[in-house]
Design a protein that fits this description.
Number of strands of chain B: 12
Helix content of chain A: over 70%
CATH class of one domain in chain B: Alpha Beta
Number of strands of chain A: 0
Strand content of chain A: under 5%
Strand order of the largest sheet of chain B: 6-7-8-3-11-12
Radius of gyration of chain B: 19 Å
Oligomer: heterodimer
CATH topology of one domain in chain B: Rossmann fold
Bound molecules: adenosine-5'-triphosphate, magnesium ion
Largest sheet of chain B: 6 strands, mixed
Structural class of chain A: mainly alpha
Chain lengths: ~250, ~290
Amino acid sequence: MLDWLKSPILTFQEFVTLAGRASLNVFRRPFYGQDLFLQMDTIGVGSLPITVLIGFFSGVIMALQMSRALSQYGATGQVGQITAITLVREMGPVLTALLIAGRNASGIASELGSMKVSEQIDAMRALGTDPVKKLVTPRLLAMCVTLPLLTIIADFVGIVGGYMVAVPLLRLTTGSQYWNNAWRSLEYNDIAQGLIKPLLFAFIIALVGCLYGMRTSGGTQGVGRATTQAVVVASVWIFIVTALVTRIFVNL
Amino acid sequence: MARNEAKERKCILKFEDVSLQFDQASPVLDRVSFEIWSGETRIILGAAGAGKTVMMKIALGLLKASSGRVSVMGQDVTNFDEVQWYEVRSHIGVLFQEGGLFDSITIEENVAYPLLNQARFMTNGKKPTIDSVRPDVQEALNFVELGNTLNKFPSELSGGMRRRVGIARGSVADPDLFLYDSPTAGLDPITANTIIALLIKDREMRNTTAAIITHRFQDGHLMANFRYNPEKDHLERLPADSPLRERTKFMVMKEGQLVFEGSETELDASRDPYISKFSMHPARKVS
Ligand SMILES: Nc1ncnc2c1ncn2[C@@H]1O[C@H](COP(=O)(O)OP(=O)(O)OP(=O)(O)O)[C@@H](O)[C@H]1O
Ligand SMILES: [Mg+2]
């Protein structure tokens, strides 16, 4: 009767097992440092330009949208606060995560998927390496380090984007008021959720990418399927998790 | 001599009623039992989807049998965990059907991979360096006549060359058992025959026990009837009464079941329409 529930539950179980194994491997020898740095480079450095671009424009759009609403209430001086809070709490983490999911969950899934169908993952196990340790753990670690950093960069660039609109373009407020307002409005609570979210998203993106990649079957067609699924599933979970975390923080 | 041989002969791989089932579908492997003894060459024939690759992966611990027992080199490995399997696998060479070469690293690093990563080659928990294993890597690549490709990447080689790199990688750690999954599939007849010649040469030089999965009966025929002559560096046909012919045994898989096991002569004599499709004399099968 509950047959339709079986497959998602099994997948979730696999996800949890993989998360456990990959995390424990962080403390177990051998360490694959070279793979870690390679991944940090592809995920972090590789995503930097697009993150900056998206971060900047989300700040710009936020300030533009708010300018009308705020001027109705004669509160245009608050534009810094609104931009900073929305970016740090929600927009920065979620947009960056969605971007990285599109870019790297798919990249990871297709890379591991191709390795699966060309029997490279079997070959690893046959030749003495644990694929979880060699492939999953470096990607997970690299993601956990780079995604929060990218998010911080996106937040900052976004606030700069808001400044560009609010001060030189629309003259809603003065520069020092904008920055003061933005900076003072941020509480520990905001910073905390702004950093916890990217860390959780990092787990989701890296592990969903790896899981769907390593489960690939059915040749090159399967690789395409795994890639699509990884992006969709990671994106959905990003929204679910951000809703849950926000719910918790709203009550604090 | 005979007594001596009997003492040395060991059971390298043993399947007892091994079955494997994915989901609810019909079993992919259905109560398969066989033994491969040291020095033996086992030719595994069967149509696509018969379960040959699955069988090989069970022998390597990459898949777990649903039921039955598996022994490798006299050790019951049925309930081994992944860590225990690493030790077992380090004595088995393998050539994968899809190649399984790591395409992000060079040929040299590919061939060195087992030496650098298997626990058996570590001293005090430290990996050997790529420089220290280079002579072994070079020798393995020379054996497959690819000694000058060390710094190339797998994508830069032809299909036949990649197969040969796979053979070099499988044999570099001097395995007790070599599993070849479809070494000649998708190759032209000339390249296919050079690959088989390599396997014969490897058997003669290192006395390897091997299981060879193939669709081509000629592969088995060559393995059974030829030997490598190191003095003249070529293959020569074994005399008809040579006992060396007996070391090549054939088996045929059909839909997960083992439907034939025996010598080449017995295979040729089979009148079963499925089995005789894999023999040299298809014309004789019509009864
Ligand atoms: N991971 C898997 N999940 C489900 N079914 C599988 C899996 N791997 C193999 N099978 C099924 O098992 C059967 C046997 O597959 P196998 O790869 O062993 O065939 P084969 O004899 O090697 O064929 P070929 O000569 O084409 O390589 C096939 O029907 C295949 O669909
Ligand atoms: Mg196969």
